[in-house]
Amino acid sequence: MAAPGDRLEPPPLPEYSCSYVVSRPVYNELAFQQQYEQRPKERKTLRENLTLLPILDWLPKYQIKEWLLSDIISGVSTGLVGTLQGMAYALLAAVPVGYGLYSAFFPILTYFIFGTSRHISVGPFPVVSLMVGSVVLSMAPDEHFLVSSSNRTALNTTLIDFAARDAARVLIASTLTLLVGIIQLIFGGLQIGFIVRYLADPLVGGFTTAAAFQVLVSQLKIVLNVSTKNYNGILSIIYTLIEIFQNIGNTNLADFIAGLLTIIICMAVKELNDRFKHKIPVPIPIEVIVTIAATAISYGVDLEKNYNAGIVKSIPSGFLPPAMPSVSLFSEMLTASFSISVVAYAIAVSVGKVYAIKHDYTIDGNQEFIAFGISNIFSGLFSCFVATTALSRTAVQESTGGKTQVAGIISAGVVMIAIVALGKLLEPLQKSVLAAVVIANLKGMFMQVCDVPHLWRQNKTDAVIWVFTCMASIILGLDLGLLAGLVFGFLTVVLRVQFPSWNSLGSIPSTDIYKSTKNYKNVSILRFSSPIFYGNVDGLKKCIKSTVRNLLRLKATKNGIISGAGSSNNAFEPDEDIENPEEPDIPTKEIEIQVDWNSELPVKVNVPKVPIHSLVLDCGAVSFLDVVGVRSLRVIVKEFQRIDVNVYFASLQDHVIEKLEKCGFFNDNNIRKDIFFMTVHDAVLHLQNQVKSQEVQDSILETIALIQDCKDPLELMEAEMIEEELDVQDEV
């Protein structure tokens, strides 16, 4: 038995006794294409790529007996949460609370028909709502709605026309929603759902954490019931915090206590829900319970009258008729709408993919763009703000047994009941309670900070992207911060591609496996792990030069090119037109060769004999080429041919070879397709066969030369027999 302080030995690695033997010809690209006919590419039309009505795929297969009850329970639970979150997130969007209910209802109706995710709950999300609010506040600040009023106590008092302000803000929010929907619909129609791939996880993590901080600050002033100016742009969050602390003495205690208790209770119960989720069939809808209790207390105590608490006051009952937003405002919000449309889409798709993987189905990224585009266009006509999804609300829908978007439609029905019947009942509700509900739901986004140390250990570049995007979004604002994070992320990619990894390869004995080792004798194998384009062709040339430098050791002198210092160079012959012939005693200064890869070698240069005869480039990691890359490869091949070194390519993908053909790589007679091999091993076997053939040929030529040199062939035969006899005697 091992002592307590002893280190346990790691378990031995399993031994794999199986092996395989493959017998096939050595293939270059030309031979392979001649033997195996290439299939023509099938290109889908735009109509085939778009699934206009995904509902027709899953609704006919709906299992009523197995799924309906689960969808009803899930829909009711999600609808209750969605009602509260819609009202709360309306505060972030800077519109009256009642319009949050509309935003939690209308988008679901169209996503049910056009969406491909079965589990996401469509509606408002705090980050997107805050981005909408920043546009609304910048275009309709309080200062634009000041009116003068006179009464007995004060003359010429300046007041805010709240009715006009709220109407203008609703119009701006709905117009922005319509424009975002149009952009998303265009993106989906153009099949550019891949755009979300550029929002890497570290970038999204840093951005959403910064957005959570922005949301916290924006809701903090509501919890404290402290009035501040509406700041927007660079350092706006800092200015808001400073003003909050300057006016903290004006805090309304009733609102502060109600908000603080709501935050504590909601976070505690949510923690219990997470800890005992396997034992609790349905999560406790704590937001609904707290809201009902807070509304009852506010109504019973009359907090607005007795303690000057901020309450919701008015929620419209029923639905408003559709109205066309103001298209003339598009030009003022075009830039912001692009970022909002991409962020809203990215959040929805990322959440949708989580549950699609969990439940073994797929979602169509381009169709999701179309679904949310149609949803936001439809919602914009009914005075809503931009819809996406929320992880917390989607988690409720999935964890309570939701199987399909039927649960979403049922949740929309719950919201509809709230709109029609419960509007007046919720008017005494304190705004601080709604703000506290928003803050309580930010825990997951703030916990992303704990991922940074782990990310730093895994990949320092990704950790830097996370921190940079977070800080930029806090300082510059969400729009500029997201743009800065994207640019910074692109720069890291460019730097990594421009200075890619490369290494020399060697074969594991008796296998076709090639790993990073020292160079072969007389053959250099090089792997370049990057696309080849204008930004890194210099790096390609540099790595080739570095790889073969120790073998070639070429140096330039005043009289031409020589090989390694002190070595004989049989290929070098002095030029007849030597400059300054009357000064033969000038010492020859050796300098490292500087090859101009963009120009042909001068005709007069006498090329030395070099210690390698072949260079194999493993291009399996080359994903694309541009015109500059093709031209550089052609020059490299020709320049090595000038020094009697053959260049071979291995493992190129088909589309890369097609690009070489289109760019005229094979137009030169000296560059043929048979220098391209299917694998590195094919190239090496080809070279080995060539060397063996050359050795046999050299031996035959040497024998013929000896026969020709001898006057009497019999003398040659006798000499050979004497040598054989001497060899036998030596062995005895």
UniProtKB/TrEMBL annotation:
InterPro entries in UniProt: S04_transporter_CS, SLC26A/SulP_dom, SLC26A/SulP_fam, STAS_dom, STAS_dom_sf
Topology relative to the membrane: Multi-pass membrane protein
Compartment annotation: Membrane
Record carries keyword Transmembrane helix: yes
Taxonomic superkingdom: Eukaryota
Protein name as catalogued: STAS domain-containing protein
SUPFAM superfamilies: SpoIIaa-like (SSF52091)
Residue stretches making up the STAS domain: 513-687
Chain ranges passing through the membrane: 89-114, 170-196, 202-224, 231-248, 254-272, 284-301, 334-357, 369-391, 406-426, 463-495
Recorded GO MF terms: secondary active sulfate transmembrane transporter activity
Any one GO cellular component localisation term in the record: membrane
Gene3D superfamilies recorded: STAS domain
Keywords, ordered alphabetically: Membrane, Transmembrane, Transmembrane helix, Transport
Keyword Zinc in annotation: no
Pfam families: STAS (PF01740), Sulfate_transp (PF00916)
